[in-house]
């Protein structure tokens, strides 16, 4: 599972931003199932930053986002940017690509949490 968040940070806010980013990375990587975090700064656009965090699974991602200190520090930090979570469908090392089976249900986009036991009426 990948958490990717892009940020636009004015030069005057860089020190504050990097301090918050480092604290967020520290908190997330201390969580079980968090494999690593990367903070990147654009070489072409000085105000553009990206945070990428890898988790072992969707469950590890959800659990990592649950502790109080993460909700207190990381969630507000991520809200400064545009965050999205992605399922890893392929990875590569040394030129070898490995495909992964999706764990997202084929009807995930059509079912709400309240439909856990099945929708009361079929959707079109």
UniProtKB/TrEMBL annotation:
Residues 7-63 form the ABM domain. Residues 105-124 are annotated as: Disordered. It comes from the Bacteria. Pfam families: ABM. This is ABM domain-containing protein.
